[in-house]
Design goal:
Elements: E1 2-7, E2 37-42, E3 45-49, H1 55-61, E4 69-71, H2 77-80, H3 87-93, E5 97-101, H4 103-112, E6 129-133, E7 138-140, E8 143-152, E9 155-162, E10 165-168, H5 176-181, E11 187-191, H6 204-214, E12 218-222, H7 230-236, E13 241-243, E14 249-251
Parallel strand pairs: 3-4, 4-5, 5-6, 10-11, 11-12, 12-13
Antiparallel strand pairs: 1-2, 1-14, 2-3, 7-8, 8-9, 9-10
Length: 254
């Protein structure tokens, strides 16, 4: 399985509009973070996890010419606002696009993108999505996908485990059953917003403490704000823990 990090930033992205801090003005491309999303590829299929606000830019940058499914973690704007750009794949592939998520997340999509799910004039076209609510493990193109419930403040969201890999963005609490579901991983991707506490995201110290419990072989940190400078922060991390960055590609045995 190939994993491509399309965006590793928080909801504002980095640089932040109007900010002149040293991270926002950094020349290091690893400090330039689009909104959070990844592309998974296996069995000649492309699976998007979240259609971020920057999805069009991400798709052009990485030449994502085909998509076969989308997994959604939750319905917040930075994770879904690129949904309208999915219609290009409908036009090209001449088929509805399967979309997976919790029943609550899919209801959020129906409400936010109401025009895609009601009879309206077509105009320039609209996304054609096959919404599939999931709560238990399911097969996706020959590979088992496990939804992993997490808490993002008071909102339940999904992480996803696929074989020895798991992706957990936007969370600040992991219930006991989900801790068990994240055991024995080769690669864990986990939220680490900033060095200081936040009400709905893990801070960097909290993430490191959690990783000491879960002990994946390798961990990559995502959903980072402009409070995290890449080179300096990377140098402080324990062995086997790294900051992800936009454009990073991993090859994983799923």
């Amino acid at each position: 399985m190939r994993v491509t990090f399309l965006g590793t930033g928080t909801s504002t992205g980095v640089p932040v509009i109007g900010c002149r801090c040293r991270v926002c003005t950094s020349k290091d491309p690893r400090n330039q973070r689009l909104r959070p999303s990844i592309l998974l590829e296996w069995n000649d299929r492309g699976i998007l996890v979240d259609s971020s606000s920057d999805f069009r830019q991400q798709a052009l940058r990485h030449r994502i010419d085909r998509l076969d499914a989308v997994l959604y973690t939750h319905g917040h704007a930075d994770h879904v606002m690129g949904l309208d750009d999915l219609r290009i794949y409908n036009f090209r592939q001449k088929a509805d696009l399967p979309v997976y998520g919790s029943a609550g997340t899919l209801e959020d999509l129906r409400r936010t993108f109401w025009y895609a799910f009601t009879e309206t004039q077509e105009g320039g076209g609209k996304p054609r999505l096959d919404l599939r609510a999931v709560a238990d493990p399911f097969d996706l193109f020959g590979v088992r996908v496990d939804p992993v419930p997490l808490w993002h403040g008071d909102l339940e969201v999904f992480g996803y485990r696929i074989g020895s890999f798991a992706y957990c963005t936007d969370c600040n609490r992991i219930p006991p059953a989900s801790m068990e579901a994240l055991d024995s991983l080769d690669v864990l991707v986990l939220d680490a917003l900033r060095p200081t506490p936040h009400p709905t995201h893990f801070s960097l110290p909290q993430t490191l403490a959690l990783l000491a419990q879960l002990r994946p072989k390798v961990a990559y940190l995502i959903h980072m704000s402009h409070d995290i400078e890449h080179v300096e922060t990377e140098a402080t991390l324990p062995p086997g823990i790294h900051l992800a960055y936009d454009g990073l590609v991993l090859e994983i045995q799923a």
